[in-house]
Amino acid sequence: MNKVLEPARPPSQAHCAAHPLVGMRGVGKSYGPVRALEAVDFDLASNEIVGLVGHNGAGKSTLMNILAGVVQRTDGDFMLEGTPVARWSAAEAHRHGIRCVFQELSLCANLSPAENTRIVHRGLRGLGWKKRAGALITAALDRIFPGHGIDPHLVVSNLSIAERQMVEIARAYTSTNEPIRCVILDEPTSALGHTATEQLLAHIRRAASDGIASILITHRLNEILAVCNRAVVMVDGGIVAVRSTKGLSRSELVELTGHVEAPRDRQKKDRSTPGRPIVDHRTELAQDKVVLAAPGEIVGFAGLDGHGQRERLRDIYKTMKGGQTPVAYVAGDRGTEGVFGLWSIADNLTIRSLKTLRRGGLISDEASRTLASTWAKKLQVKAPSIDTPILSLSGGNQQKVLFARALASDAAVVFLDDPMRGVDVGTKQEVYRLIRSEAEKGRCFVWYTTELEELTNCDRIYVFREGRAVVELADEAIETGRILEASFGGGNG
Ligand SMILES: Nc1ncnc2c1ncn2[C@@H]1O[C@H](COP(=O)(O)OP(=O)(O)OP(=O)(O)O)[C@@H](O)[C@H]1O
């Protein structure tokens, strides 16, 4: 019979050398009829950085949630340094030094970073606990994200999504004397800008040299190749490949996930001269460019994260909403402003189209279902049916539903607010193609993205600096070097 694991005496060196930190054998997980994981074997050594990659719904978060104790496995064995684990919970995982940064951020929005830190450190009590909790989270933030500027006592709902993600990450690295042995990071950079991403990757490397292993789940494959020792590839609930990242190329990694990446070079397009702008937005600020966008155009917002792109995008959307031109908005922060958690895929997808689904004063069920099925299929939403509750989808599949909601609507202008968070490589390519073909049919897209490479899908971009749109680049001029130069103060602005 399995011995129940007892904490948390440091194991002997010989024991550690003989056993991986984590060992999983034949692990499976079913959600009712959905088989999310099938017979997975997974090992992690101390000090190791492992990258977990795979398409949306491949089972990555499920596997990691089992390790973090928030989901119970239905089959298989799990060992910690060779000792079988029977009962396992989030509290047990924490006690044994396993931390998790969740894809859907887990902070309480009505509490401050300090109070959120207290939630995971029950020892922080008595007089002055808030001050000590504030100091603990600030020290972690300073170590990982120097220059972050986050007030540990400000309520989390007042923080930007990037700041919330930084707090969530930093909290995983706080300790009040208990060990930290492994940190699972599920899409940790999806809301971070370039600088914070680089800071985090450097921190993961430092942590490994201090004996903290990491498991990094990301669709940004360059990050896997930059920091991980091994890449573990999942397809449809199983592990299909384990490769050392030494000498592994990005395209090989993409192929292992079952996709082929299209060439990244900008395709020369025969773009007709744009017509009369459908978006014409100016501000009172000096040297702030007028943002123009015509039907058929894809216009990007670029620049270092937090330089006013998102605010301008929202301003334009709010100005146009309710006006003559129908508009739609795809949020990147799906947790707080995108997904209706209690609704099905179909209801989430069609909510923006109710007007056009009306037949004789009532919403037509048949027309709604046809619209939902068509677009769920176009975006390859992985789910048993369109009636599946949205929260039982993987994160990337929830994001696809938000895309489908906007594209299925009658919107002539679609605003995209860094919308590819957690979307896999294959689907991204499909969405880029869809955006291009919708633009060719006359739709206009205004697209804020923190992924530089994504901007090559645009016809024209505005680079933002210090709250203003300062440089405009078009067609072949849209390339990484020029965007970075403009972001830091060079260029034709
Ligand atoms: N609570 C749940 N109820 C029902 N099915 C679920 C639930 N959670 C996950 N699933 C299903 O399990 C499968 C694996 O999901 P998981 O979130 O592990 O995928 P993933 O690889 O992390 O995807 P992504 O890259 O989109 O985050 C999916 O088919 C998903 O719909």
SSE order and pairing:
Blueprint: H1 13-18, E1 22-31, E2 34-44, E3 49-54, H2 60-67, E4 75-80, E5 83-84, H3 90-95, E6 98-101, H4 113-120, H5 129-144, H6 161-172, E7 182-186, H7 194-209, E8 213-217, H8 221-227, E9 230-235, E10 238-244, H9 250-256, E11 279-281, E12 291-293, E13 298-302, H10 309-320, E14 327-330, H11 334-337, H12 345-350, E15 358-359, E16 362-363, H13 365-378, H14 395-408, E17 413-417, H15 425-440, E18 444-448, E19 460-465, E20 468-474, H16 480-487
Helix pairs in contact: 4-5, 5-6, 13-14
The structure holds adenosine-5'-triphosphate.
Organism: Jiella pelagia
GO molecular function: ATP binding
Keywords: ATP-binding, Nucleotide-binding, Repeat, Sugar transport, Transport
Point out poorly predicted stretches.
1-16
Radius of gyration of CA atoms, rounded to a whole number: 23 Å
Distance between the termini: 71 Å
Structural class: alpha/beta
Fraction in beta strands: 15-25%
Q: Could you say what the CATH architecture of the largest domain is?
A: 3-Layer(aba) Sandwich
Shape designation: globular
The CATH topology of the largest domain corresponds to Rossmann fold
Mean pLDDT: 88
Number of discrete helical segments: 16
Order of strands across the biggest sheet? 6-7-8-3-9-10
The profile of the biggest β sheet is: 6 strands, mixed
Provide the domain count. Answer: 2
The CATH fourth-level homologous superfamily of the largest domain = P-loop containing nucleotide triphosphate hydrolases
CATH class of the largest domain: Alpha Beta
* Ligand set: adenosine-5'-triphosphate
Q: How much helix is in the residues?
A: 25-40%
Number of strands: 20
InterPro entries: AAA+_ATPase, ABC_carbohydrate_import_ATPase, ABC_transporter-like_ATP-bd, ABC_transporter-like_CS, P-loop_NTPase
GO molecular function: ATP binding
Pfam families: ABC_tran
Protein name: Sugar ABC transporter ATP-binding protein
